[in-house]
Structure formats: structure tokens, C-alpha cells
Amino acid sequence: MIKIYEATDVGRVRPVNEDSETAFEPCVCVVADGMGGAAAGEIASQILIKTVRERLYEKTSITEQDLAETIRAANAEILENARLYPERKGMGTTATLLHISEARGQAYWAHVGDSRLYCLRGGTLKQITRDHSYVEDLVENGTITEEEARVHPQKNVLTRAVGVLPEVEVDTGAFLVKDGDIFLLATDGLMKMMEDREIADSLVTKRGSGENLAQLLVNRALSVGGVDNVTAIVVVYAS
Hints:
With about 240 residues, the protein is α+β, with helices and mostly antiparallel strands. Helix content is about 30%, strand content about 30%. The mean pLDDT is about 95.
């Protein structure tokens, strides 16, 4: 059995919500964080979501390769839209996709940008995706710490996004799911406001409460500032 919770909010500062999200059968979940300004970021993230739904809705068998090809198709759609509407040139979006196959007991994912996929298992929250950002590169090569990355002036600079270049490199993966796993897909507006430990504690404490777990996390981000658009999808898996 799979339960899915969704929530998104413009936040307390931004005038437009450039985030987009969707979840549909057979357990495909997507979050996208648009960029580009002048509403173009919103358009880019919406094109990504539209492409995912068109290609994967009610598809009987989905693999990580299918997810990656869908992101590449969205990349082409966004570039074509920017060609038709030159004022949107430079728009793009992150893309984090998750599919859980109950028949196979597998999770498949694909990812570009700095939105994230997490798995909470046995009380431990693990980040599955890697941020494609300038500060993440600095952390990996030891130039700065993770704590310094959170306040770095260039923390929002992406090294990879959907809809910016003719070709996009997509990270993918697959792993076995276990009874009790909780998955979180979120845009960076959530991570800016909450540390991983606080996210894990909230999910563990409120699981089984009947509350919308995604809305709970979004509300928490808003209560401590909500400096960016914030979006979350929480998936609870029970075999």
C-alpha cells in the first residue's frame, strides 16, 4: 500500500510560485523548481510536469531509463518554447522524479538540479540525489563545509538544469524498497528552512497521525520564514 501526500506554496517573499509538482498512478511523483524570472520559470516547471504526465500516466511498466528519457523530452520542449517566445530565453527548471513499482518492490528515480529525493528508513533520513550546484561541488572537493554551503552567497547557482542546453545529463538510480520506507521529494525552499534532522523528526513523529505530511513540512518552512517557494511530496510505502 502506498500513500502519497502533496503540498506547494508560494512562500512569504516571492510574488509567483515557480515550483510545480504532480503525483499520479502508477506511483509517479515529480517536483520541479523553475528559474528564469518574468514568469518563465513557472512556465518551464509546468512544461516539465506536462511532459511527465503525457509520457508516463498509466504506463504499465516504468524504469529509470523511462524517467530519464522523459526529462530529456521536457528539455527539448522547454527549449522549443523559448525559441517560440524569445522573452523566455534562459528559463529552465530542476526535475526530480520517483516511481515506485509495487510489483517489483523497486524504487526508480531520475534527477537534474538541486531539488532533492530522500528516503527515511529506520529513523535515518538519507539523501538519494546529489545537488547539481556550485556549492555542492565546493563541498565535495573540501573547499567549504556543509554548514558553510547553507549560507554561501552562491548557493543558488546550478551547474545543471532542464531546458537550458540542447543536451542534459540526467542522474538515475534504482533500489529495493522496504516496508515502512518514507520518501520525500522537495524543492530547495524546504531545505533552506529545515535541516535534515528536523525533517526526519517531523516525519517520524507525525507518521500515522492522519495529517498531510507534505503540508506539515511546508507549513513548518513557512513558519520559520518561507523565503522561497516551497514544495514537498511525501510517499509512505507499506508492503
